[in-house]
Design goal:
Blueprint: E1 7-8, H1 9-12, E2 20-22, H2 23-30, E3 44-47, E4 50-52, E5 55-56, E6 61-62, E7 66-69, E8 72-73, E9 77-78, E10 83-84, E11 88-89, E12 94-95, E13 99-100, E14 105-106, E15 110-111, E16 115-117, E17 126-127, E18 131-132, H3 145-148, E19 153-154, E20 159-160, E21 164-165, E22 168-170
Parallel strand pairs: 1-3, 2-4, 3-7, 4-8, 5-9, 6-10, 7-11, 8-12, 9-13, 10-14, 11-15, 12-16, 13-19, 14-20, 15-21, 16-22
Antiparallel strand pairs: 17-18
Length: 171
């Protein structure tokens, strides 16, 4: 963290259990709430971590370059109205539950190449207003599944100031 180099957890901890980090720790790290710990000017760069617990950064300000590459998020991730003062990179990461980017602002680049959003049982179409979710009406029952099932990934008014790249698999 203080050295400014990527923390690739798989090189030191090859077994999954040893690579688990608590979402609360990550929240505190990204928001400078760890007390005496100081984040290097290059930012936070974590690779191959397994994040346990809900990562809740709603309304948070993240002043650091943030790279969470090839990480596995086991629970929901909420970035609603979060302000990233620099880039956010989640390349090749897996999000097992819902992800909310509504009204998030990213001053640098947003990169999610190869990211996987696997919190639902089938591929979902993207709808700007409802994110990746079920759309349209079920003709047999007249139900509107989009209104009944929360979206796995929502992007209402995501504001990337720099380059935004999102390619991946929505399952």
């Amino acid at each position: 963290m203080e050295l400014g180099i990527e923390a690739d957890l798989i090189t030191k901890y090859p077994d999954e259990e040893s690579r688990m980090i608590c979402a609360k720790f990550l929240q505190n790290l990204l928001t400078d709430s760890l007390g005496n710990a100081k984040v290097h000017w290059r930012g936070v760069c974590i690779k191959n971590a397994i994040v346990t617990g809900v990562l809740d950064l709603e309304n948070a300000e993240i002043p650091h370059e943030t790279q969470l590459s090839s990480c596995h998020f086991k629970e929901a991730v909420t970035l609603k109205k979060a302000v990233f003062r620099k880039s956010l990179v989640v390349v090749n990461s897996t999000f097992q539950k819902s992800v909310n980017f509504n009204f998030a602002e990213i001053s640098g680049n947003f990169e999610a190449d190869g990211a996987r959003f696997t919190g639902v049982d089938k591929e979902l179409p993207f709808n700007k207003q409802e994110g990746f979710g079920r759309t349209g009406r079920d003709s047999s029952s007249g139900r509107n599944p989009a209104k009944e099932t929360p979206a796995i990934l929502t992007f209402t008014e995501l504001i990337p100031i720099g380059l935004a790249a999102l390619t991946g698999i929505i399952k």
